[in-house]
Amino acid sequence: MRIERFEDIIAWQKSQELAILMYRLFKHSKDFSYKDQMLRAVISISNNIAEGYERKSNKELKQFLYIAKGSAGEVRSMLHLGLKLELINQPDLDKAYQLSLEIARMLSGFIKTL
């Protein structure tokens, strides 16, 4: 499949899915500091994919994909912390963790193709 716009990138689509999941999971969280950091990290994934793609340079795209991949790692780290702080349960963590890991793998593959 040819990528004609950033919305065609599967990792971007999955990162939007992950962001929606995180917003739903933490919608009623009273830990505003944790919630803010988690949502900033998860939004950073799709935004960096989009920004990198729009730069129209493989070198810059690769740089932004690395940033997005780092944000996916940050989300996984925050999920572990959220479980320990009892802000998220194990089934929700597992779902979000696997999606984040899938995104990170896709980003690694995309980076290698560049």
Order of helices and strands: HHHH
N- to C-terminal distance: 15 Å
Q: How much β-strand is present in the residues?
A: under 5%
Question: Which regions have little confidence, pLDDT < 50, spanning 5+ residues?
Answer: none
Helix content: over 70%
**Total count of helical runs of at least 4 residues:** 4
Mean pLDDT across residues: 97
What is the overall silhouette?
Answer: elongated
CATH architecture: Up-down Bundle
Descriptive notes:
The protein has 114 residues and is mostly helical. It contains four helices and no strands. It is elongated, with a radius of gyration of 14 Å. The two termini are 15 Å apart. The model has no long low-confidence stretch (mean pLDDT 97).
Name a few traits of the molecule:
single chain; 114 residues; mainly alpha; de novo design (two linked rop proteins); 4 helices
Could you outline the blueprint of secondary structure elements for this entry?
Layout: H1 10-25, H2 32-54, H3 58-84, H4 90-113
Helix pairs in contact: 1-2, 1-4, 2-3, 3-4
